[in-house]
Structures are given as structure tokens and as C-alpha cells.
Write a structure and sequence with these properties.
Blueprint lengths: L7 H17 L4 E11 L6 H15 L4 E5 H7 L8 E12 L1 H14 L8 E8 L5 E8 L5 E5 L3 E3 L5 H4 L8 E13 L8 E5 L6 E7 L2 E5 L3 E2 L12 H14 L12 E11 L12 E6 L2 E6 L5 H12 L29 H11 L2 H7 L16 H10 L5 H8 L2 H4 L8 H8 L7 H18 L4
The protein binds flavin-adenine dinucleotide.
Length: 455
């Protein structure tokens, strides 16, 4: 899509960062093959896709795409619409668990002496008489308690919320929160092992069917998010219809209906807009705004986070003369991947290393063979839940089940049937009494019903 829009530099940086992450964050960022059908009566046609994929290959320094004729493509992607099908391409991209990527980066920062707090937000940038940044006021969300932290530089990386702390210095450029939503289906719903992408007939946006964590995620949408940014974003009826129409159009004989969906989830992209173009035509480039010690970095993509961080640090440097950002520093310290315990396979070890870094040792050492087994229908180990409960700043059950592991999204009814076992597993490491557990379970199930059910 970025190539089609002529955004060569963004594509190049994204591909470069992707390749780097595949190397540095094995088990967390993994290569993934995609199949995309080509039709004689639809654009993009074979030639333009071939051209785009060649450029993609050039950027990643490897030849990684191939065209399959109609028969072979249909064998690999059964149920794909046959009318006017010429065949299709296979190409390589990558996938990640976005929450775990963010947590891995935070955990690396903690190992370097950083300090991270959740359930708190900056409500004010403090300035001295000259107007230079002098600190921030932080408010604890649940108690309402405030605290001032003194500093000469603040990096405001608050995504779609960035303009609340730092109004855009460019009157014609503002953040435009765009919602993207997914439906989650069980793995059996799609009879093909690879990811598939096709161009939605309504607007020719690429839509993805992706095997992920033992299930299949299907999306995404790209619509203006007009709701209150402080509330959890939720998929709308219109987005559900858009996604199901796309599916029925390209897979008319696939008997998948909305009733099969396990859950849904939505997120907000911080996109910078000058001309209010169609959402998917808006640039995904980032900006850096600097105002006397306040550095705002927003826009951009998850894939390019290292580039964004480097730009933010460069901009903050004049305010922190004694700190020198390292060039090309490896983000994730490399953890020796020697298999020391025959209770886990090499694939599980790789997964645990990618997601938890050195934490994998504790996960394996402290777990019984039953806890090192998968939660049914998923790639998640029971032991991961206890590790996250113990070490990853869990305040509410939803933190644990929706954002540390993704059981709430990838098992039916938010994992309701597993909650008894999860409680037993985590009770020794969470300071919750029976009453607190009851409240948390009720709050979690209600939250799941409101934000993630597809009823
Ligand atoms: C559906 C969807 C699909 C996507 N797919 C891709 C993809 O395939 N590849 C890709 O590279 N990118 C993708 N993205 C984009 C990517 O997720 C975003 O670019 C990325 O999340 C932006 O990160 P951020 O940290 O700048 O902002 P956010 O992720 O929005 O994080 C900002 C954080 O700041 C916090 N915050 C807000 N106000 C305050 C405050 N006052 N004090 C403290 N904290 C505050 C918020 O709670 C939030 O946690 C996708 C996005 C969506 C929604």
C-alpha cells in the first residue's frame, strides 16, 4: 500500500526495521508467508503486484516472492473465489504480538535502570519562568493522587493523545485518530495454513487473514474514531459488515459466519492529517515537535519504533547535554538459546525467549509439566500467565488476560472457562483476597462483554 502511494522511504525504513527485528527478536517477531490472489478483472493486476513485490525484495535484499498459477494457488488457498482467478503471489512479511513487543522494550529499559509506571498519566508539563521545561505533573488514575517529577526534558510519546500535552505547532497538521478493528476466529474456520491478503472490493484496501497465536485474526478497518479517547475502542456494526462483506466476496464458499467469531478488538492509530484525505490515504510518517525541552513524537508505525525513538532522543539531546544516544544500539539483549530443559521444545523456548527475554529461565524452572502445556486452542503456556502476574505490574485481571497474554481475545468468552485455573495459578503471586478476586472476575467479564464480544 505504501509503495502504491509512492511512499518509498517509509516502505524502505519499514522493511529494514522488519528485517532487523526478525533477526534481533526471534520468537517475538517472526517471518510469515502471505498469499494474495490475482484476478483478471480486478486491480492491482499481476504486473503491478509483481513490480511492487520486486521493489519490496530489493529493499530486503532477498528474493522472496513467487507467482502460482490458478490450480496451485487454489490448492494452497482453498475456497478462494474462482471466477476470473489467474493465480496469485506468495510473499514474505512478518508478525508480532504488539503488546509483548512493547513489554519486551519496557522490560529491557528496566534492566538498564529505567522506571516504568502504569495507571498514571502526565496531566501537566511544568515550566520555569523562562518557559523551559522543568518537569511533569503525574496523576495516579485510580487514587487521583498527583506528584511532580523534575526534569529538563520530556518526551511526549502519547500517540493520538499527544496534542493534549503539546498542541501542533503547524496549524494545518493535526492528529486524526483512526480506528482499526479485527475479528478473531478459531483456527479451524480457515482451511489454509498461510496468511492471506486481498483487496477489499469496496475501497481496494488490503485486508488480512492471519494465523496468530493458535487462532486467526481478520482485519483491519480504517475509520475515523469520533468517540471519547478515554474509553476502550470497540468495533462498530459498520466495520463488522465491511469485514464480512469482504470475506464473502473473496471466499463465497467458505462457510464462516459472524457466529463463528471468538472476539473482536479495536485500536487507534495516531495518524497526522493535513487535508482530511480518505483514512487509508493519510500518511503514516511521524513528526517530531520540539518546544523548549518538550519533545513530541507521534504518528509513524509500530515497525519503525526504533527509528522514532532515535529521532526523539536526538531531539531531546540539547536539553540533556550529558546523555549521548548510542547509534545503532541493539535493543534486545541476546539471550543464549541453549536448550537446558527437555520439558520444553525448541519452538517453545524460542517463543519464551522472544517474549520474556531472560524471564524464560524462571518460567521454565518454576513450572510443573502441566503448566508448561498450552492453554487449549492457543500457543500460550499456562506458565506465562503466572510469570506475567508476578512480574508485569498487574493491577486488574484485564491487564493480565488482555494485554500481558491474549487469552481474553483468543479463547471463547474471554477465557471464562479457564478462570478457575488461572486464579489457582496466580493466587500465590497476586496480593488479592477472595473478595478482590470476585470483583476482578466480574469486572473483567463485563469489560470483555462490552469491548470484545461479537454478540
Ligand atoms: C488496527 C491497527 C493495526 C495496525 N497495524 C500495524 C502494522 O501492521 N504495522 C505497524 O507498524 N503499525 C501498525 N499499527 C500502528 C501502530 O499500532 C501505531 O503506530 C503505534 O501503536 C503507535 O505507537 P505510539 O506509542 O506512538 O502510540 P500508542 O500505541 O497510541 O500509545 C500511546 C500511549 O500513551 C498513553 N498516554 C496517553 N496520554 C498519556 C498521558 N497524558 N500520560 C501518559 N501516558 C499517556 C496511552 O495510554 C497509550 O498507551 C496498527 C494500528 C492499529 C490500530
Amino acid at each position: 500500500r505504501y509503495l502504491k502511494e509512492g511512499r518509498l522511504y517509509l516502505t524502505y525504513i519499514s522493511v529494514r526495521e522488519r528485517e532487523r527485528l526478525i533477526k534481533e527478536a526471534q520468537g517475538l517477531v517472526e517471518p510469515l508467508d502471505f498469499m494474495t490472489p490475482v484476478y483478471s478483472n480486478r486491480r492491482p493486476g499481476r504486473l503491478s503486484l509483481e513490480a511492487g513485490l520486486r521493489i519490496y525484495d530489493l529493499m530486503s535484499h532477498r528474493r522472496d516472492h513467487r507467482f502460482y498459477g490458478q490450480n496451485e494457488f487454489s490448492m494452497r488457498v482453498p475456497c478462494v473465489k474462482q471466477e476470473n482467478l489467474q493465480g496469485g503471489f506468495r510473499f514474505r512479511d512478518a508478525q508480532v504480538d504488539d503488546a509483548r513487543l512493547v513489554l519486551r522494550v519496557i522490560n529491557e529499559a528496566l534492566l538498564w535502570g529505567g522506571h516504568a509506571i502504569n495507571y498514571a498519566g502526565v496531566i501537566e508539563i511544568s515550566r520555569n519562568a523562562r518557559g523551559d521545561v522543568a518537569g511533569v505533573v503525574i496523576k495516579e488514575n485510580e487514587t487521583g493522587e498527583t506528584k511532580q517529577v523534575l526534569t529538563r526534558a520530556v518526551i511526549n510519546a502519547t500517540g493520538s493523545w499527544a496534542e493534549k500535552l503539546h498542541p501542533s505547532p503547524d496549524q494545518s497538521l493535526h492528529l486524526r485518530p483512526l480506528r482499526g478493528s479485527h475479528l478473531v476466529f478459531p483456527g479451524w474456520a480457515f482451511p489454509f495454513p498461510e496468511a492471506v491478503t486481498f483487496f477489499h472490493p469496496a475501497d481496494r484496501r488490503p485486508i488480512f487473514i492471519i494465523p496468530w497465536e493458535g487462532v486467526v485474526i481478520y482485519g483491519t478497518t480504517d475509520v475515523d474514531h469520533k468517540n471519547d479517547l478515554s474509553l476502550e475502542p470497540v468495533i462498530s456494526e459498520g466495520e463488522i459488515s465491511y469485514l464480512m462483506d469482504g470475506l464473502n466476496s473473496f471466499f463465497p464458499s467458505l462457510e464462516v459466519s459472524l457466529k463463528d467469531a471468538i472476539s473482536s478488538y479495536a485500536g487507534i492509530r495516531p495518524v497526522l492529517s493535513r487535508k482530511q484525505l480518505a483514512p487509508s490515504k493519510e500518511s503514516r510518517e511521524h513528526v517530531v515537535w520540539i518546544d523548549r525541552g518538550l519533545v513530541t513524537i507521534t504518528g509513524g508505525k509500530l515497525t519503525t519504533f526504533r527509528e522514532l525513538a532515535a529521532d526523539a532522543l536526538k531531539a531531546a539531546m540539547p536539553f540533556l547535554p550529558s546523555v549521548k544516544p548510542a547509534e545503532n544500539e541493539v535493543i534486545f539483549r541476546q539471550i543464549p538459546d541453549v536448550l537446558t530443559d527437555n520439558r520444553v521444545s525448541a519452538a517453545v523456548l524460542r517463543r519464551l525467549t522472544g517474549r520474556y527475554g531472560d524471564g524464560k529461565r524462571e518460567i521454565i524452572k518454576d513450572s510443573s509439566p502441566e503448566d508448561l502445556s498450552n492453554i487449549p486452542g492457543t500457543n500460550t503456556l499456562w506458565a506465562e500467565i503466572r510469570y506475567a502476574a508476578k512480574h508485569e505490574a498487574i493491577r486488574h485481571l484485564e491487564d493480565l488476560l488482555l494485554r500481558r497474554v491474549r487469552i481474553g481475545l483468543i479463547t471463547p468468552e474471554g477465557g471464562k472457562e479457564h478462570i478457575g485455573r488461572i486464579k489457582k495459578l496466580c493466587a500465590p503471586v497476586l496480593p488479592w483476597d477472595e473478595g478482590k478476586w470476585d470483583t476482578e472476575i466480574n469486572m473483567y467479564l463485563e469489560k470483555w462483554r462490552q469491548a470484545h464480544s461479537v454478540a
